[in-house]
TrEMBL record:
Organism: Amycolatopsis carbonis
One Pfam family in the UniProt entry: SQS_PSY
Enzyme Commission number: 2.5.1.21
Name the record gives this protein: Squalene synthase HpnC
Domain of life of the native organism: Bacteria
Keywords attached to this entry: Transferase
Gene Ontology MF term list: geranylgeranyl diphosphate synthase activity; squalene synthase [NAD(P)H] activity
Keyword Magnesium: no
Length: 291
């Protein structure tokens, strides 16, 4: 970000990149062929950079996000990027394996985060997820040369469900940061106040609300899990890894009995692996897509 970060904030972006380099890349994807693995890691790094600039960067986050988005757009137009994260995506760009639009939507989602901290309805939250989550699935499908409308629809369901589950894991943290993703209509329906989200333990009403939200996200994930059956080969394995992580997260959240404030709902690697194995052998192969 040295060439694009305004007002001397390049060091902030550099520090975020160092943090990301220590993060674990999804275990199920480590066995992929080198080119696919490199492409996915490059996509993951760009997506994480966008999220971190929107969530954690000091200074003018809007300016940082716009600068990163501008350099990304220029790179897709053929310019040579100076940002190392964007440079990592260049091979996939030049080969036509990724498109700009999904990344543009990720930037838009994080720009929205800078001024929208509440969502009135579930449909409003779903619309946000179409910017913040669904584009990632579309990118992954393209990397595996999948251009099937049915697969795209199922992928959107999976990605939105994964985003919702992440929000339900982070209710307390988000509240502490001034953000509430629980729809206002649901808080009202269950008689939950915003102050209750900052307590050490969830109230009875909040536990009931969270059980409802977890079940709804689980149903959405289940409605999209058939995506695995449309895929073959490495594409099936990669997507299974993401779905398995979601299913294991549902289990972990349900174990809290709705008290997501007192207990960190985080699945173990063994739980994810168990679901991954089940998805590989338990979902029928119905499609002709992805190698």
């Amino acid at each position: 970000m040295r060439s694009t970060s305004p007002d001397g904030h390049a060091a902030d972006a550099d520090g975020l990149r160092e943090k990301r380099s220590a993060e674990n890349f999804p275990v199920a994807l480590r066995v992929l062929p080198r080119r696919l693995r490199s492409d996915l890691q490059a996509v993951y790094a760009v997506a994480r950079t966008i999220d971190d600039l929107g969530d954690e960067a000091d200074g003018d986050r809007i300016a940082l996000l716009k600068a990163f988005g501008d350099e990304l757009s220029a790179a897709f137009d053929g310019a040579e990027p100076t940002d190392p994260v964007i440079r990592g995506l260049v091979p996939a760009m030049r080969a036509g394996r990724v498109e700009l639009e999904p990344f543009r939507r990720l930037v838009e989602a994080n720009l929205q985060d800078q001024h929208v901290t509440r969502y009135a309805t579930y449909e409003d939250l779903r619309a946000y997820c179409r910017l913040s989550a669904d584009p990632v699935g579309r990118i992954v499908l393209r990397l595996f040369d999948v251009h099937d409308p049915e697969a795209e629809e199922l992928s959107d369901r999976v990605c939105t469900a994964l985003q919702l589950l992440e929000h339900w894991q982070d209710v307390a943290e988000d509240h502490g940061n001034g953000r509430i993703y629980l729809p206002q209509e649901d808080l009202t329906a269950y008689g939950v106040t915003e102050d209750e989200l900052g307590a050490a333990r969830a109230s009875r009403r909040l536990r009931e609300l969270m059980r409802f939200e977890i079940d709804r996200a689980a149903a959405l994930l289940g409605s999209g899990a058939g995506l695995v059956g449309l895929l073959h080969g490495w594409g099936r394995l990669a997507v299974s890894g993401f779905v398995a992580g979601g299913l294991a997260t549902v289990d972990a959240l349900r174990e809290t009995n709705g008290d997501v404030l007192a207990t960190q709902a985080k699945p173990g690697k063994a739980d994810v692996l168990a679901w991954l194995v089940w998805l590989q052998v338990g979902v029928p192969r119905t499609g002709r897509r992805s190698g």
